[in-house]
Design goal:
globular, 23 strands, about 375 residues, seven-stranded antiparallel sheet, 8 helices, single chain
Length: about 375
């Protein structure tokens, strides 16, 4: 989906008073933390001190816990469009495919962030029975979008959150103003960003590539019938007709450690079992009427007894329950390159119970087509 709503990028509502401050001696605003690597990312991205931060396929994401639908992301994108009107027109075409009720609610061409021309768009759309609001800032790296853009995205539900009994968008939309206001460029383009056109290998028959950059460590392919987003470097795809979606993320050790602390998970060393415990804890907060099915995972097992397909080994857990009023069935695949369990990834497949089996074969095809770099 064009602006895929992940199950793992969620945060609590914070008080706006935290964002009015005078700053620290090292340049970090008071009450904030620096979560980007300015030298490689090309920008300073600050989040509140008590937020969690993760990095997924070139996208920095901020969140606090899984009680809220709010998330904020920062990334760098490339395009062949020289006019922002053309870029946004193409984006809206994809958004209308992803959200049947898509509507643009606000836009501006008169903003400046970090002394750079900035385009702003706010829009709405429903996913899995929940209506979301989005705010996006496109900060030009040069004179036109074709010179590259830095993109800030805020996402939150516009429906009542059953966990907090509040409307997340209404409660937290103002915080994005402070996050955007603190965003600063280094003056140099990010390092290690390679355009898809220069790295795209031949895709398996009937499939297309769903990731833009090589820094993620693998190439991910989906069937030609799926919609993919290549503009933001995010690895994800969806089927517009029924909202079925997949998303792929690399696991950050820092994010895992913070989640273990948040959920009170004790461990003498990170194992696959710890990751399983984290996932179960997260989905217990995300879903009601929660049930889980999982591949055999003997106590103490690590890289053994996994399923192998192509270059990938994986274990699968399937969660069934309700998110709000919407019944969902989610399979989470903990996967790694066979014989090289150095980096772990999560592939998340989300569908309704009625469509889950219909598209499961496509997901298995995606797993078999992964190519590690």
């Amino acid at each position: 989906m064009k602006r895929y709503v992940t199950l793992f990028v969620l945060c609590l509502i914070l008080c706006t008073a935290l964002f009015t401050s005078c700053g620290k001696n090292d340049g970090t605003p008071e009450g904030f933390q620096l979560v980007s690597d300015p030298e490689t990312d090309g920008f300073y991205f600050y989040l509140p001190e008590d937020w969690y931060a993760g990095r997924t396929s070139g996208i920095l994401t901020g969140y606090l816990s899984s009680l809220s639908t709010v998330n904020v992301t920062a990334t760098y994108v490339t395009t062949d469009k020289t006019e922002m009107t053309d870029y946004w027109s193409a984006s809206e075409t994809e958004l209308r495919e992803d959200f049947s009720d898509y509507v643009l609610t606000a836009s501006s061409t008169d903003l400046n962030i970090s002394d750079r021309p900035t385009y702003y768009y706010a829009y709405e759309g429903s996913y899995a029975g929940v209506r979301y609001g989005f705010r996006q800032y496109f900060i030009l790296a040069g004179n036109t979008p074709a010179d590259g853009m830095f993109v800030l995205t805020y996402t939150a539900s516009k429906d009542e959150n059953p966990q907090t009994r509040t409307v997340d968008y209404e409660e937290t939309s103002g915080y994005m103003d402070s996050i955007a206001g603190n965003f600063r460029l280094t003056g140099a383009l990010p390092q290690g960003k390679t355009d898809l056109a220069l790295t795209d290998a031949e895709a398996p028959a009937g499939m297309k590539k769903a990731n833009r950059f090589t820094s993620f460590g693998l190439d991910f392919y989906v069937p030609n019938t799926w919609n993919v987003d290549l503009s933001d470097g995010f690895i994800g795809a969806s089927l517009a007709e029924d909202g079925t979606a997949v998303g792929l993320e690399a696991l950050s050790i820092d994010a895992i450690a913070k989640k273990m602390e948040y959920f009170g998970i004790q461990s003498n060393g990170l194992t696959q079992m710890d990751l399983v415990k984290i996932l179960k804890a997260e989905y217990r907060e995300y879903l009601t009427d929660f049930t889980v099915e999982e591949d055999p995972f003997p106590e103490g097992a690590d890289a053994q007894d996994a399923t192998t397909v192509g270059e990938t080994s994986y274990r699968r857990m399937t969660f069934t329950g309700k998110h709000g009023a919407q019944e969902v069935r989610v399979s989470v695949y903990l996967l790694w390159e066979t014989g090289h369990a150095r980096t772990f990834y999560l592939l998340t497949y989300t569908a309704t119970p009625a469509t889950y089996e219909t598209h499961l074969g496509d997901v298995e095809q995606m797993l078999g087509a992964i190519r590690y770099q």
